[in-house]
Amino acid sequence: MGSELPIVAVDAMGGDGAPGVMVEGARIAATDFGVPILLVGRPQELEQAEGIDGITIVAASEVIGMGDEPAASVRTKKDSSIVVGAKAVKDGEASALLSAGNTGAAMAASLLRIGRIRGVSRPAIAVPLPVLGSTPTTLMDCGANAEAQPEWLVQFAQMGAIYNRTRFGVERPRVGVLTIGEEAGKGNTLVKETVALMEAGEWAHKCGAEFVGNVEGGDLMSGFADVVVCDGFTGNVVLKALEGTTALAFDAIRTTIADSEFSEASEIIEPVIRQLEPQHTGSAMLLGVKGVSMISHGSSSPYTISNAIRTASEMANSGIVPELRALMA
Amino acid sequence: MGSELPIVAVDAMGGDGAPGVMVEGARIAATDFGVPILLVGRPQELEQAEGIDGITIVAASEVIGMGDEPAASVRTKKDSSIVVGAKAVKDGEASALLSAGNTGAAMAASLLRIGRIRGVSRPAIAVPLPVLGSTPTTLMDCGANAEAQPEWLVQFAQMGAIYNRTRFGVERPRVGVLTIGEEAGKGNTLVKETVALMEAGEWAHKCGAEFVGNVEGGDLMSGFADVVVCDGFTGNVVLKALEGTTALAFDAIRTTIADSEFSEASEIIEPVIRQLEPQHTGSAMLLGVKGVSMISHGSSSPYTISNAIRTASEMANSGIVPELRALMA
Questions:
Q1: H runs (alpha helix) in chain A
Q2: Which of A31, A129, A232, B60 could form a disulfide with B81 if both were Cys (CB 3.0 to 4.6 A apart)?
Q3: Under an 8 A CB cutoff, do A188 and B260 touch?
Q4: Nearest to A220 among B245, B246, B257 (CB)
Q5: B143 contacts on A by Cβ (under 8 Å)
Q6: In this predicted complex, what is the ipTM?
Q7: Tell me, which fold does domain A121-282 have in CATH?
Q8: Domain spanning B122-282: which superfamily?
């Protein structure tokens, strides 16, 4: 393709506005950012992408829907767009995968096709949360593992630290454990055992992180820590709560201003709001698999998709996967 | 005291601004709302409250601080303001207790002094979350039980339903379980077992509730359900995340507007923001003890404290405790 950027396989059939939004997002990423793309899906639905410089259409006849059971459908729908995309990464035809479809299926396809890094107990989903005036705080696990073991959370901390340094340039990430009180000894059994392991271990030294102890829910977007670890149930509930509530609240404020005599104030409020909306901070990344696997919101706009494609390519270029492999070996 | 309203015992020594804020809150509640108050604390620090109509100062020589271990300090500091206040409720001298101090100590004092309702496995903290244009959604447990059993969550659902009807007048509260996907079968072991119990049981009929199944984090403030149950770890983390994030976001928006040429727009934004801030929606209530026990934020203003005192008196008047006793018998 002539480009030096790593190739991204894009699941064209996943997401609320698929394939149209995905095609448009791919077009922006290929045209404006120069990212070479394998656009995976039903060719007859991807005609708009034909002839766009930098986009190669890869045929996949099946689609895994939002309601499909993830692991089962990844096994049975072998010619689905997400499975074919994951296989392209496994086979080296692409360096990264992006899907805005069924999150569980994207995880299952990544795990089953791209495969887990040796030494990683469980891959986990890292999501950057916005911090005003600073780099984001990475929350993980945001839903890959509804239940977790203390040892897994220590690995999440290590993977999250490397992710935070690679993606946001934080030299020595401050890592904490999400719990219900600032004081040591607060939390549930998982948290207490995790904190005990973390205080005793060499894990932080190995990944260049600093352990900052307990982090309360109120400090997730305050910049108190760079990486916050938790089980995937807690992480997903909190992430959805933050996304949903900020969306509701900001829409109410936007409407109030727009309907008022101060409607021009929208212009000064909008940039602040966009900085504070978790969904604009960046796509989720599944850490712990042998390739870059990124997951976007189903409701993403073409512009958001194009940014996610660019980030996926950059992460493939960054060397994060080899670094994680070396750490976990 | 001549008043028809139930008497509220107020822990004058707990909270960031104690005793000043508590005295002022008590003064407003007594003077403006006519709530008779037992103001419990060190008399020499409560001189400002002397002579206020409706306020009786009750001496307690000790204070349980924010850093004190809750259960141990409740046992050893028998003459602390929170323990003396709880004892006043137990002895029938007051009908409700309000503290803005150490939450764990307020819970422990309520449990050990006021006592648990027979049949209640574990009392739990109910917190109303704001819903724009509708009655609040009650989240519980918000931190009394870091770990929980499915059977407890069914009781939380029942107690929460009765609370929601009593406090907000919702005739037939819609009750759901907080989890990580809309579809049945999503969640951790606790959630799956709880949902199975709830689908099978007669619990909803007994308390006049309607079971609406899974509730995701994003629907906590959307009005999708009237009561949402979870373990106290998840509930506390989510509550703190919502409070902390809305505080940060709204402060950023307030500052942006105030510093701009549209500073007068503050007047139209402020009422919307106040409706959306969880900390203004109402105090937490410990459900499952043989009396009304309310817990306010340590950072509460005198006005917020006065509202909490009024709510505590109203809840004592509402008959919620006898109703819970009858339900659980």
A1: 20-32, 70-76, 81-90, 103-109, 150-168, 189-200, 203-207, 232-258, 266-276, 302-318, 320-328
A2: B60
A3: no
A4: B245
A5: 180
A6: 0.94
A7: Isopropylmalate Dehydrogenase (3.40.718)
A8: Isopropylmalate Dehydrogenase (3.40.718.10)
